[in-house]
């Protein structure tokens, strides 16, 4: 790694806590802005170097949305860079911690995942000398506040980084808008602040995102979702069912009794997943509700005897999941993170790794109707969202592992 190529803003992050810095009396640092703007690497390096220069035998916290995303997006970059500088970094995976030694000192960095409201219990009771919250906007407020409360050692400081979200987000309201009040250094990053970003990569991000995701991830703005969720989607994204064999099949399901039920059959050719046909049943329109057994039968008709590797189902549909398992289907409970699922769906469609085929008329119809709620909230309107839900379940399953595209940014709204 070339350590001479840090930008001015990155160098400020790296040195804000040092004795000669004008920012040395700050209690916290907040770095937000565009994707690939260089904030994650310099924040992570600065946090560990600060800890090792000021403490010995202490405990620190490094937090991400999940442990997997934390390792993938932060540790896999930061630890090799620190090792190159002479730090000894030993990750103890089974204990979710990293032991760092430097200059005769040793400190322990515990790793925490702030996935949901229950995650706050994971960090209770530990005493920390500092905490770094990577992608803090993706974490629940209860977890973040609990992590901050654990920093009770004299001289402890708080470190935050994130991509922007809605200006109504609690972190924007409580921390960014009140940075001076909280004695926090606030630095906003653009892609120009990352000297290591190749022009070709920057150009690819320009093309990949549109709408509010473009404003957030490329321009680094805190803006509210408005209009169509998938505003880019038009007939050019719809293809005929490809000829030839598929190497693998999966089904994604959004279950409904009173509300519509939507099932999609996906087939894989190479690195591309095609939604080749679908089942969509609106009980209100039909005037008749279907039972779980009837939906299992409908799914069987949709599959038509093809060897399905996974059936990805709305996690709240407990009775339907049980019925599918009794029928012998390999069921996977969907990951129901709405904003991340929307982003991954849009990424997959724009990269061409997910394709909607012509027979899927209800999915095509919903793409043109699925909208953000009014009022600046990052919430889609609960209308015309049933095929949209089963498609984002599918996108999340590819991201979670098992033969699909990888998100270009961690996880964060309209396209």
Walkthrough of the structure:
Helices cover 34% and strands 22% of the residues. The protein has 14 helices and 15 strands. The protein has helices at 8-15, 39-54, 67-84, 120-123, 141-149, 170-176, 199-208, 211-217, 283-286, 292-303, 318-326, 338-351, 361-367, 386-400, and strands spanning 28-33, 59-64, 88-92, 97-102, 105-113, 130-134, 157-162, 184-189, 238-239, 248-254, 261-269, 272-281, 308-313, 331-333, 354-357. The chain starts with 7 loop residues before the first helix and ends in a 15-residue tail after the last helix. The longest helix is centred in the first third of the chain and has 18 residues, at 67-84. Helix 1 packs parallel to helix 2 (39-54), helix 12 (338-351) crosses helix 14 (386-400) and helix 13 crosses helix 14. With 415 residues, it is α/β, with parallel strands linked by helices.
| Low-pLDDT runs | 402-415
Largest sheet: 8 strands, mixed
Q: Total number of helical segments?
A: 14
Q: State the end-to-end distance.
A: 35 Å
Q: Quote the average pLDDT.
A: 91
In total, the number of strands is 15
What is the H/E string?
HEHEHEEEHEHEHEHHEEEEHHEHEHEHH
Overall spatial form: elongated
What structural class results from the helix and strand content?
A: alpha/beta
Percentage of β-strand residues: 15-25%
**Neighbour order of strands in the largest sheet:** 3-4-5-2-6-7-1-8
The helicity comes to 25-40%
Q: Nearest-angstrom radius of gyration?
A: 23 Å
């Amino acid at each position: 790694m070339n350590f001479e190529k840090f930008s001015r803003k990155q160098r400020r992050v790296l040195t804000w806590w040092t004795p000669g810095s004008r920012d040395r009396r700050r209690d916290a640092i907040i770095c937000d802005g565009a994707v690939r703007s260089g904030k994650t690497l310099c924040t992570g390096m600065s946090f560990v170097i600060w800890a090792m220069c000021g403490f010995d035998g202490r405990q620190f916290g490094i937090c991400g949305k999940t442990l997997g995303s934390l390792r993938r997006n932060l540790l896999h970059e930061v630890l090799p860079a620190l090792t190159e500088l002479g730090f000894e970094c030993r990750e103890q995976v089974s204990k979710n911690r990293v032991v760092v030694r430097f200059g005769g000192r040793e400190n322990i960095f515990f790793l925490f995942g702030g996935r949901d409201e229950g995650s706050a219990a994971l960090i209770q009771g530990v005493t920390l000398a500092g905490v770094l919250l990577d992608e803090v906007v993706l974490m629940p407020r209860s977890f973040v506040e609990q992590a901050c409360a654990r920093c009770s050692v004299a001289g402890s400081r708080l470190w935050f980084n994130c991509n922007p979200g809605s200006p109504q987000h609690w972190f924007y309201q409580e921390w960014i808008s009140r940075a001076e009040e909280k004695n926090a250094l606030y630095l906003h990053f653009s892609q120009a602040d990352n000297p290591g970003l190749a022009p070709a990569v920057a150009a690819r991000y320009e093309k990949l995102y549109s709408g509010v995701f473009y404003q957030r991830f490329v321009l680094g703005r805190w803006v509210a979702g408005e209009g169509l969720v998938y505003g880019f989607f038009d007939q050019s994204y719809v293809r005929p069912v490809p000829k030839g064999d598929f190497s693998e099949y999966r089904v994604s399901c959004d279950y409904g009794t009173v509300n519509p039920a939507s099932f999609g059959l996906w087939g894989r050719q190479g690195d591309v997943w095609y939604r080749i046909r679908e089942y969509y049943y609106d009980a209100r329109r039909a005037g008749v509700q279907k039972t779980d057994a009837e939906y299992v039968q409908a799914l069987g008709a949709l599959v038509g005897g093809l060897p399905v590797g996974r059936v990805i189902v709305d996690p709240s549909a407990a009775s339907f999941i049980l019925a599918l398992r009794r029928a012998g289907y390999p069921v996977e409970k969907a990951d129901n993170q709405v904003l991340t699922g929307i982003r991954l769906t849009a990424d997959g469609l724009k990269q061409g790794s997910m394709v909607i085929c012509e027979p899927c008329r209800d999915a095509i119809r919903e793409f043109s109707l699925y909208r953000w709620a009014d009022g600046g909230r990052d919430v889609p309107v609960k209308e015309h969202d049933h095929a949209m839900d089963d498609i984002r379940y599918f996108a999340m399953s590819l991201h979670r592992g098992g033969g699909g595209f990888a998100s270009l940014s961690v996880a964060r709204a309209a396209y």
